[in-house]
Every structure is written in C-alpha cells, then in structure tokens.
Design brief:
This protein has about 250 residues and is an alpha/beta fold. It has eight helices and 13 strands. It has a single domain, classed as Class I glutamine amidotransferase (GATase) domain (Rossmann fold, 3-Layer(aba) Sandwich).
C-alpha cells in the first residue's frame, strides 16, 4: 500500500459564485510530484494546534510547501517593505506540524518556506530580505524561470541529500527573498549557494529523515529534472519504511 503524504496548502483569495472568498490552495506541481514519487497526496488545511497530533497520526510523510513569509515576530525579526503573505494561522499550524514530525521522526520534505518553517519552529532565525542583507538578487525568479535551473548549490559530501540525488553539485531554481540566518539546534547545514546563502539542511539526528531545501523541486521535477524527482521518491520510500516499522 503506498504511503499517505500530507501536503500543506496555501491561503489565497479566489473567485467563487459567492464572490471573492478565502480558500486553501495546492498547486498541482506538488500533488503531481508526490504521486509521481510513489505517494498518495493529501492536501492539509490548518487545524487547531492541539489537533495536529491526531492529523500526523494518520500520515506516513509530510511536505511543507512554499508560500508567503514567516511572521518575523516568530523569531525576533522585524517586518520590512519586502515582507509579504504573512498568515498567522498557517504559521501556527506548520510550526506544530514541524515539531510533531520531529517528535515522531516522520519523513519530511520541506521546500522553500517549508525549510524556513522548520528552522523557526525549532528555534532558528531568518534573513528577512536577502537583497537588503547581501545585495544579491538572483534568489527570486518568476514566470517560466521557475522551471529552469539558474543557480548552483554545493552539498556536503556524504550528506543525506547528496546521497539521494547522487551528486554534490546541483543546478536549481530559486524563488525566495528570505533564508536561514541562525540555524536551529538539531539542524545541520548541508548545502549553500555561491554567495553563502543556506540552501539545504538536514537533521543532526540520523533517525529523522528530513530533507529541507530552499529551492523548488516540484517545479523542476515537473520539467523532468531527475534529481528533483528523486527527492519525492526518497520521501515516499522513507514514509513506506516508517509505516512498515510502525
């Protein structure tokens, strides 16, 4: 039986027969990537934080997706003109998911905002705006550029991510203006871009299969990139293994 993989949704306002209403949305690139990797995708809308454990108990793996910024107040930062898309309900829900997944050693693939969520949930901080921090602007492409690698990431030899993709050099896309600054206790940096921005982390505890990347493999995988597809296959494989042990 294939593993059930929960995928966090993004709050948006959409046109409906009742006018412009709030909705929890999930891009097909995430759904299709999980299914292609061998999992059963299950979109997750926010629930009360005291119900997150009940939700996780019904999942085999988790994808923390991209989206708007994490509220700077959550890590002692400050808002700027570049800050966008903050949603307190989503933040609280995803922090609880990250903490619960760590406690259960649940397989997780954290993507872009998802990586930032894990870091903040575990006590780390973020760079609020990369261009203001180091002058770099190559971390935020849009349009068709999201499906094309344009940035090189170097991975640590022997790290979990390098083993999954079979290389220590990856060409990736980049759709973010924030990144990890102070790394949370229990996480290890395993990948950086040429300008030093943290692009990948994993758990120091090898019993927690966490793959956390700052780029967007769901887009690259949709365009046929095998390394990106390998991340979703690894997630499904780890989730299947966790289910059989459980």
């Amino acid at each position: 039986m294939p593993p059930v993989i929960g995928i966090t949704t993004r709050p948006r306002t959409i046109a409906t027969s009742g006018g412009q209403l709030g909705a929890d949305t999930l891009q097909h690139t995430y759904r299709d990537s999980v299914a292609r990797g061998g999992g059963v995708p299950l979109p997750l809308s926010p629930v009360r934080t005291d119900h997150v454990g009940l939700l996780l108990d019904r999942l085999d793996g988790l994808v923390l997706t991209g989206g708007g910024d994490v509220a700077p107040e959550a890590y002692g930062g400050s808002r700027s003109e570049a800050t966008y898309g903050i949603d307190d309900e989503r933040d609280a829900f995803e922090f609880a998911l990250a903490i619960g997944a760590k406690e259960r050693r649940m397989p997780v693939l954290a993507i872009c905002r998802g990586l930032q969520v894990v870091n903040v949930a575990l006590g780390g901080t973020l760079i609020e705006d990369i261009p203001s921090f180091n002058g770099s602007s190559h971390h935020a492409v849009r349009g068709d550029g999201v499906f094309t690698p344009h940035q090189q990431v170097t991975l640590d030899e022997g790290c979990l991510l390098a083993r999954v993709v079979g290389s220590t050099r990856l060409h990736v896309n980049s759709i973010h203006h924030q990144a990890i600054q102070d790394v949370a206790a229990g996480l290890r940096v395993v990948g950086r871009s040429a300008d030093g921005i943290i692009e990948a982390v994993q758990a120091e505890d090898d019993t927690w299969p966490l793959l956390a990347v700052q780029w967007h493999p769901e887009y690259l995988g949709d365009a046929g990139d095998e390394a990106s597809r390998a991340l979703f296959s690894a997630l499904a494989g780890a989730a299947s293994g966790a289910r059989s042990v459980g």
